Amino acid sequence: TVAAGDNSLTMEGGGNIGYDxxxxxxxARPVQLPVPGMDLAGVHNCWTLADxxxxxxxxxxxxxxxxxxxxxxxxIILESLLKLAGNLSVVEMEERMVSRxxxxxxxxxxxxxxESKNVEVLTSSRVSAIxxxxxxxxxxxxxxxxxxxxxxxxxxLAVGVAPNMDFLDGSGVATDDGILVDEHLATNVExxxxxxxxxxxxxxxxxxxxxxxxxxxxxxxxxxxxLNMAGLNPVYKGxxxxxxxxxxxxxxxxxxxxxxVSGGDSAAATDEENYKYLCLQFGEDRLIGALGIGxxxxxxxxxGLITSRTPxxxxxxxxxxxxxxxxxxYVAHSQL
Length: 336
Ligand SMILES: Cc1cc2nc3c(=O)[nH]c(=O)nc-3n(C[C@H](O)[C@H](O)[C@H](O)COP(=O)(O)OP(=O)(O)OC[C@H]3O[C@@H](n4cnc5c(N)ncnc54)[C@H](O)[C@@H]3O)c2cc1C
Prior knowledge:
Number of strands: 23
Number of domains: 3
Protein name: FAD/NAD(P)-binding domain-containing protein
Domain FAD/NAD(P)-binding: 12-203
Structural class: alpha/beta
Strand order of the largest sheet: 6-13-7-8-9
CATH class of the largest domain: Alpha Beta
Radius of gyration: 22 Å
Shape: flat
Keywords: FAD, Flavoprotein
Helix content: 10-25%
Bound molecules: flavin-adenine dinucleotide
GO molecular function: oxidoreductase activity
CATH topology of the largest domain: FAD/NAD(P)-binding domain
Distance between the termini: 54 Å
Cofactor: FAD
Strand content: 25-35%
CATH superfamily of the largest domain: FAD/NAD(P)-binding domain
């Protein structure tokens, strides 16, 4: 627990530690599915090194593996499971894969790509239970809400994360989806700061507060928090919602307001056959969001144009007509 009144921490095993300034960087933990069967052998999160070793030990070339969750972390895990597992099925309750970073076109393209790699992708499908199968070989049945059953030797869960902040109960530190911090990474309680996955900090695109549970945000948070704790006073510009992902070898990326803003303009170039897609979102004449599939060469450019808030001038119309010219737009503005 944290006793903010007398600047001290109480440890689980007993004893207190005093502080002048406190940084909370306790990260997140995997969310568990609220269904029966989560405690069966062979049902794993992928969080610790021990989890990864257990998964690698159970995934064999002739085995059935079910991955529950096709979000950002699920797709990272999918990339590795595909190399190990015989038959891989993915169950996702949303109507598309990686729904928090992809629109229907991108999510559909990713699903088709995975299916072309012999991955069974079941979207709009919820798991209702995991049961021991009657084969005597330690297999399980993953039961879906519509009654279907998927046989699995190994079940891997990737259904979201929750911040580790329970120990703050009664401390007075304000929380929401994470610990609320201002542009100095300070909480509402004097001398207490928070950073990383546990912190709900300023968002670059909206000015609101978001948990961006990714490593670059944790690094930026840590740096700004440390400088402020050391008595300097830097202001954080906010973290960019950003995901760069390889799923079964297909690279996807999304940045900022990839889903656009009301009254904004957007342009998309779609090549379904070659799994290429680029969608740009504009606010006035600035790029505010981007979403790409199979566009590895544009990743840095999209991020750069968004974070620099570069006024595009007449390049906005050129990009509305031909989004694939985003590299040219970047070069034109970086040489001004
Ligand atoms: C499978 C997987 C793949 C990922 N891939 C990517 C990726 O490709 N790119 C990317 O940017 N991000 C990725 N992430 C996210 C990235 O790992 C996190 O954003 C990053 O680790 C956050 O850093 P952190 O320091 O805030 O938290 P953590 O790295 O989680 O560290 C928090 C630490 O605090 C400790 N702790 C917790 N509670 C307490 C307590 N009460 N007392 C003492 N100690 C405590 C924990 O044990 C842990 O060591 C991935 C995550 C997972 C699970």
